[in-house]
Specification:
A hairpin with a 5-residue loop joins strand 2 and strand 3. A five-stranded antiparallel β-sheet has the order 3-2-1-4-5. The termini are far apart. It contains two helices and five strands; from the N terminus they run ααβββββ. 22% of the residues lie in helices and 33% in strands.
C-alpha cells in the first residue's frame, strides 16, 4: 500500500510539473511583459496594401489597425519599439507621455528573441514640462 501511495504521489507531482510548465510556456509573453513609462518618440500606422482587403462578410482585416510604436523609458532612457494591432494607438501623438505594456517574443523564436510584438496602451497623458 505504501508503494502505491509513493507511485501515486510521483505521478501527481509529474502531472503538476507538466501543467505548470505548460502554463508558463503558453503565457510566456504575459508573464515576462515589460511596463514602459515615458515619452512617445514615434507612432506610425503600418499601411500594407494587403491590409485594405476585407474579409468575407464585410469585416475589416485587423492589419488595418497595425501600428509601430517607440517609447523612451523615463528611468533608463532606453528606447522600446514594438508593433501592435491595438486601435488605441491611433490617437497617440509624438511628444505625449504614455504607460505601455510591451509583450516580448519567447526565446524559442530565435530570429525574434529579445524584441517585442505587442504594445498595450495603459495610460496616455501630456508630458510634464522639463
Amino acid at each position: 500500500m505504501a508503494t502505491l501511495s509513493k507511485i501515486l504521489k510521483s505521478v501527481l507531482g509529474f502531472v503538476l510539473l507538466v501543467a505548470i510548465t505548460w502554463v508558463v510556456l503558453v503565457n510566456y509573453s504575459v508573464i515576462f511583459s515589460k511596463t514602459v513609462v515615458g515619452e512617445v518618440i514615434n507612432v506610425e500606422r503600418v499601411e500594407l496594401p494587403v491590409a485594405l482587403i476585407a474579409r468575407a462578410g464585410g469585416e475589416l482585416n485587423e492589419k488595418v489597425f497595425s501600428f509601430a510604436i517607440s517609447i523612451k523609458d523615463d528611468t533608463t532612457n532606453e528606447l522600446f519599439a514594438a508593433t501592435s494591432e491595438d486601435r488605441q494607438w491611433a490617437i497617440v501623438q509624438k511628444g505625449q507621455c504614455a504607460e505601455a505594456v510591451y509583450l516580448p517574443y519567447p526565446p524559442w523564436e530565435l530570429k525574434k528573441r529579445g524584441t517585442y510584438f505587442g504594445a498595450r496602451l495603459v495610460k496616455l497623458y501630456e508630458c510634464p514640462k522639463k
